[in-house]
Design goal:
The chain has 97 residues and is an alpha+beta fold. The protein is built from one helix and four strands; from the N terminus they run βαβββ. It has a four-stranded mixed β-sheet.
């Protein structure tokens, strides 16, 4: 299966990492990044395990931090579209293709 990350995910991730680095130093930023990577790995291993968020997207909640992945999945491709804070407006990132 092909795994694709939308080009704006780097902006989503950088913004969150900067926040956690400021709040708790690099240790907290590293914990956040590890949670992001671990959740992405769980999605890649079993994308159908996660519930639908919209008609075309599924949602994967991070284990520790208040963020989630929104991704689309078909038989040949898994595409991560947004890494979004839980309190972010529900429409944030939905226009990404």
């Amino acid at each position: 299966m092909e795994v694709i990350y939308h080009r704006l995910i780097s902006r989503d991730l950088r913004s969150a990492l900067e926040y956690y680095d400021r709040q708790g130093g690099t240790v907290l930023g590293d914990r956040f990044f590890a949670d992001v990577e671990e959740t992405a790995a769980r999605v890649i291993a079993n994308p159908k395990h996660f519930h639908s968020s919209t008609v075309r997207l599924r949602r994967a909640q991070l284990s520790v931090f208040p963020y989630h992945w929104l991704f689309e999945n078909n038989d040949s491709r898994l595409r991560f579209l947004v890494l979004r804070h839980d309190r972010r407006h529900p429409s944030y990132g939905l226009r990404r293709r």
